[in-house]
Structure to design on (622 residues):
């Protein structure tokens, strides 16, 4: 071979060696490039109305500097809107914007934070995901990682620019907790206890996953694993200390006794503290005496006492975070949101475009479980993956909001499936080879997922889910708001009465009117008024408008020919959408391309509150 050939061979092997040494870095660059390109083309990946509220929350936190007061000034129902998210959720974005504001200005810094911070949070998330894949024992994790990311792209799009909801933080904390569970470092349980407290303080949505984290530590101690007593004690002490510290950091002293079931408060703090102390105390009581039965009984006894005490102290929280919501709002709005349903209530499951992806998710989620049912080759990392994967699958079927997290586990499970289906001797199969023996039958890994998909499909074919009539407010809130035009120069004190989704777009603006409601459960009173205002059964819509103290009405515009069916089903809403208001509303001028109609409310004395001055394209949206 000539020197030129040697040089060419060395250059050709340089890049693969570099990739193998840092696959997470290359995958990060690739994923970020894809997300930025899609963002620049106008695709909003995994976005929802919560991102619009977060912009308003972060802006308010920076303007007031008050970490305890979570009252949002732009939302007047007229009852004050108090956010159920603690300020620590806003901290990464607020800190970035605060540092950048002296150089770029306040609003540009806020927009830069909503773009950059999700990508920065993706760095540690991808690091932990790579560690998790390495722990599975694949022959070449550098090949397994990009494949898993492709399968799990839906979850990791939670780190796309503008995706500033709390979900990306929760995913990061869960991945870190899984890696710490697998670590043999003596400090890992201590750190995991703090992370568990932080995750629950952010939101109780991931409580089932972190309850399973606690179960793993408890099982290790019950089974008498090496250093398990030290591990469960460290975890418990950190959990209790973290729960108390976060309570002091997120709850104002004047609200220590307040009971709130939808945000971190006394019930959550006491529950975590009790769980942590039981983990720290029970091993000390038992010492080296007693077998697994005594250890299990003691832990269960402490858990039972804690649960009974919490139920006695806080019975109002047994109904969950939405217990105080009016039944009208629950039936007409909350229960109609797709992510609030179970899979069995989704009417379009079989014919939906997402059915193939759901089938893949089921196959990937159950593959580690199938492998663990074998008698040989089970490893601790694989068993833990199987447990969390099975829990994620159950949660996703019961509550569709968890489908956004299931790909974390299915992505890894699908690698096992792919390796089992590849021909023997193929290069890719050699790269994906793991020390875990696959079932002897070639299609054994995919069969449970296929059976589950078929069973749910047959259920939907046999039992048609009930579908309630679409509320008028939902129809009047369904226009394309991605590039909606808004009016500048609102009269002082303007308060816009609108369906919830339109309200969330107004509240995200840097300069805009106040709104009556947004689509979040702390705004339930405003939601009820907006739905009843457009409800054909409401005899006097004006009375509801008066109760909200609104000055304007905004509604999706129907700009085509009048629709007889729309007018028959929703006479009042159709009149507003078509530009035929009652005498006490006056239509304000808007662009012909605007998806909205805006009305000025004429007061009882005949005075007019005025209209916005001019049309402005969308501003300050993430």
């Amino acid at each position: 071979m000539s020197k030129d050939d040697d040089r060419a061979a060395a250059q050709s092997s340089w890049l693969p060696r570099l990739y193998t040494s840092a696959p997470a870095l290359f995958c990060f660059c690739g994923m970020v490039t894809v997300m930025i390109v899609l963002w620049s083309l106008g695709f909003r990946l995994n976005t929802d109305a919560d991102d619009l509220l977060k912009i308003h929350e972060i802006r308010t936190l920076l303007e007031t500097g008050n970490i305890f007061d979570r009252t949002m000034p732009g939302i007047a129902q007229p009852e004050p809107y108090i956010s159920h998210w603690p300020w620590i959720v806003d901290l990464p974005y607020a800190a970035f914007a605060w540092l950048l504001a002296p150089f770029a200005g306040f609003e540009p810094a806020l927009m830069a934070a909503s773009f950059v911070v999700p990508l920065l949070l993706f760095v540690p998330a991808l690091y932990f995901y790579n560690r998790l894949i390495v722990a599975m024992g694949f022959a070449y994790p550098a090949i397994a990682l990009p494949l898993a990311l492709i399968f799990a792209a839906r979850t990791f799009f939670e780190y796309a620019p503008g995706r500033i909801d709390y979900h990306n933080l929760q995913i990061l904390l869960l991945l870190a907790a899984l890696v710490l569970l697998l670590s043999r470092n003596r400090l890992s349980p201590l750190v995991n206890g703090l992370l568990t407290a932080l995750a629950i303080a952010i939101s109780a949505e991931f409580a089932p996953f972190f309850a399973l984290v606690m179960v793993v530590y408890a099982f290790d101690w019950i089974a008498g694993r090496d250093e398990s007593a030290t591990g469960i004690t460290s975890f418990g002490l950190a959990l209790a200390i973290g729960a108390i510290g976060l309570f002091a950091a997120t709850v104002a002293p004047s609200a220590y006794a307040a009971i709130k079931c939808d945000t971190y408060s006394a019930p959550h703090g006491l529950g975590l503290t009790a769980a942590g102390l039981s983990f720290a105390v029970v091993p000390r009581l038992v010492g080296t005496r007693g077998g697994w039965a005594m250890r299990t009984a003691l832990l269960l006894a402490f858990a039972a006492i804690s649960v009974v005490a919490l139920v006695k102290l806080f019975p109002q929280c047994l109904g969950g975070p939405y217990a105080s919501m009016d039944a009208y709002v629950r039936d007409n709005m909350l229960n109609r949101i797709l992510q609030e349903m179970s899979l069995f209530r989704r009417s379009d499951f079989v014919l939906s475009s997402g059915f193939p992806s759901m089938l893949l998710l089921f196959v990937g989620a159950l593959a580690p479980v199938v492998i663990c049912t074998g008698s040989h080759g089970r490893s601790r990392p694989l068993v833990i993956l199987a447990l969390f994967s099975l829990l994620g699958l159950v949660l996703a079927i019961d509550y569709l909001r968890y489908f956004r997290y299931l790909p974390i586990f299915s992505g890894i499970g699908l690698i096992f499936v792919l390796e089992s289906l590849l021909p023997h001797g193929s290069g890719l199969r050699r790269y994906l080879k793991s020390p875990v023996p696959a079932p002897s039958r070639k299609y054994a890994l995919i069969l449970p997922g296929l059976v589950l998909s078929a069973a749910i499909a047959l259920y939907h074919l046999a039992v048609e889910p009930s579908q309630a009539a679409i509320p008028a407010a939902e129809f009047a809130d369904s226009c394309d708001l991605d590039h909606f035009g808004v009016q500048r120069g609102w009269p002082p004190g303007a308060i816009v009465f609108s369906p919830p989704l339109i309200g969330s777009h107004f509240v995200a603006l840097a300069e805009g009117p106040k709104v009556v409601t947004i689509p979040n459960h702390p705004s339930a009173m405003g939601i009820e008024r907006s739905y009843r205002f457009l409800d054909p059964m409401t005899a006097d819509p004006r009375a509801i408008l008066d109760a909200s103290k609104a000055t304007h009405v905004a509604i999706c515009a129907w700009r085509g020919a009048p629709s007889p069916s729309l007018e028959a089903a929703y006479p009042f809403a159709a009149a507003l959408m078509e530009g035929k208001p009652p005498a006490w509303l006056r239509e304000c001028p808007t662009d012909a391309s605007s998806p909205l109609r805006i009305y000025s409310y004429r007061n009882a004395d005949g005075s007019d509150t005025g209209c916005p001055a001019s049309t402005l394209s969308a501003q300050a949206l993430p």
